[in-house]
Amino acid sequence: MENISPLAEDAFDGRHAIVCGASAGIGRSTALTLAAAGAELTLISRSADKLTALANECHNAGSPTVHVLPIDLEDGRAIDALIPAHLKEFGPAHILINNAAGPPSGPLLDATDDDFLKPLKRHLFAAQRMVRHCLPGMEKLQHGRIVNIISTSVREPIANLGVSNTVRGAMAGWSKTLATELPPCVSINNILPGFTNTGRLESLAEQISETRGVTPDDVRSTWLAGVPAERLIEPEETAAAIAFLCSDAGGAIRGVSLAVDGGRMRSI
User: Fold this and answer.
1) Strand pairing report for 257-260 and 95-98
2) pLDDT exceeds cutoff 60 at 3
3) For 27-55, b where at least 16 C-beta lie within 10 A, e where not — what string?
4) What backbone phi and psi angles, to 5 degrees, belong to 260?
5) What is the reported pTM?
6) Closest CA to 231 of 190, 185, 196, 186
7) Is 25 helix (H, G, I), strand (E, B) or coil?
8) Burial of 7 by CB count in 10 Å (0-12 exposed, 13-18 middle, 19+ buried)?
9) Fewest Cβ atoms nearer than 10 Å: which of 12, 30, 76, 123?
């Protein structure tokens, strides 16, 4: 899809953005969208090879500097060791995108303690650490934008995604609380992706099809039957909404959960 960002090419000139989970899906599209608007980038995920390839794309898209920082977000010690040193060497972050791969599908009653703990580490605990490390620099800059990529399940739980529903809900409550505690110069918001055209969604379709004894196409058709837009959302569309929240124009938006779902949710 073409770059659909409404932002000017220089909208993020002089801004440093950290994008977690940048190697694929929405994280990857967000990195490219911010790059096209001139942001300096720090790309985080477990895959060094994918990050290196993406860094070259971000350079070509318009980012003046791209840093690659392979981190397993489930490893709190790695975050605590690498992020402060990185910020000290390359300067504070104006923008933090908290994003990570979601948990596998399955009934909630089948979940073990470890099934909950691993995604909590990857999402909630990692986001808490990232905010605590980035916040002093944002306060010094008197400018900060934090955007968390979670799910529409924080309002309407999704069937067969019990652990994910639980972890995403915890993230939403954490974020809304921080919105009242962060300094005035730092905003925090959530993006709630709907059924988005990513590898993660393809994987979920395959998992659910095996469980229910139907085809992946049947699963996708069931999903789209409840989407008024009658299509999957492209990750570039979600990235454009994220970029707006990170822009100067989005500064008055604070503590909200913005759905980018083609109208799937029925709640107000």
Assistant:
1) unpaired
2) no
3) bbbbbbbbbbbbbbbbbbbbeeebbeebb
4) -120, 80
5) 0.93
6) 196
7) helix
8) buried
9) 76
